[in-house]
């Protein structure tokens, strides 16, 4: 049963050490299965809402003879289906990461990756300025991961920025860093630790309007941390959000 532990013998010998070791292992196992249980429950809960909405809308479309209304309803169904699809993509990507499927690290040049990611922003996105402190910065990471990180941070910045986004690339001998600053409402200190948790959103309403999944920053944090890098959130000079991602510098060959 959960919570069961080996009784510790009175002596301070190897047997006692072994029992302590064993109990610590049980503890870690229990924590891991508790995390998994919570994740599965949260995932089911998150998937339920777009599915329920698609179902209701489809019922409306089927029973309503007005073609204009069904057109609108179909549009809503499409939006929910897209949301469902990005949720599933996120879940699959986190599941692969949990299973330890990590592609080998390679040198990735951040200045060109940042420019490419800015180029992928949709038309009508807030003005995005790249302010390089360096001409090149080589991260010890993986190309697809860097794209995921930059796309997520820029997409979030676009959602919340009022006027401008500034992306900077910095480098030291041992590490390289991307900083994304926006001039939106920012993230209050009490939420900063938690925004990297799976499904966490600062305000449910805000997330509903923006159509987010609550998985983006969790994926960012996990891909960066498993390479020995760091993610941080703070305040930008304009009072908006500042996200910083630091990778280990690629070894020079
Ligand atoms: P979502 O898909 O909901 O955006 P994320 O994991 O990307 O999920 O972000 C988690 C939450 O962090 C968001 O719901 C939002 O409340 C907050 N957040 C993320 N980026 C920003 C930002 N640039 N400015 C303000 N709030 C942000």
UniProtKB/TrEMBL annotation:
Residues 1-34 form the HAMP domain. GO terms for molecular function: kinase activity. Residues 42-251 form the Histidine kinase domain. Keywords: Kinase, Membrane, Phosphoprotein, Transferase, Transmembrane, Transmembrane helix, Two-component regulatory system. It is found in: Cell membrane. The keyword Transmembrane applies. Coiled coil: none annotated. It catalyses: ATP + protein L-histidine = ADP + protein N-phospho-L-histidine. Its EC number is 2.7.13.3. This is histidine kinase. It comes from Amycolatopsis heterodermiae. The lineage of its organism: Bacteria, Bacillati, Actinomycetota, Actinomycetes, Pseudonocardiales.
């Amino acid at each position: 049963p959960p919570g069961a532990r080996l009784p510790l013998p009175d002596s301070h010998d190897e047997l006692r050490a072994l029992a302590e070791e064993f109990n610590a292992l049980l503890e870690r196992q229990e924590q891991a299965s508790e995390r998994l249980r919570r994740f599965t429950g949260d995932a089911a809960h998150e998937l339920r809402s777009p599915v329920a909405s698609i179902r209701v809308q489809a019922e409306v479309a089927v029973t309503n003879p007005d073609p204009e209304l069904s057109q609108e309803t179909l549009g809503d169904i499409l939006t929910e289906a897209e949301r469902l699809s990005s949720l599933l993509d996120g879940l699959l990507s986190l599941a692969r990461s949990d299973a330890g499927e990590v592609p080998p690290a390679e040198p990735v040049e951040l200045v060109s990756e940042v420019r490419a990611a800015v180029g992928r922003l949709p038309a009508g996105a807030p003005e995005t300025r790249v302010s390089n402190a360096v001409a090149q910065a080589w991260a010890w990471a993986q190309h697809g991961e860097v794209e995921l990180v930059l796309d997520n941070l820029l997409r979030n910045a676009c959602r919340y920025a009022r006027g401008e986004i500034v992306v900077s690339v910095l480098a030291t001998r041992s590490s390289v860093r991307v900083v994304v600053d926006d001039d939106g409402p920012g993230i209050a200190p009490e939420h900063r630790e938690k925004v990297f948790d799976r499904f966490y959103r600062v305000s449910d309403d805000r997330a509903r309007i923006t159509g987010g999944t609550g998985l983006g920053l969790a994926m960012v944090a996990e891909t960066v941390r498993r390479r020995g890098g760091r993610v941080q959130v703070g305040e930008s000079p304009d009072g908006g959000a500042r996200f910083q991602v630091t990778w280990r510098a690629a070894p020079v060959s």
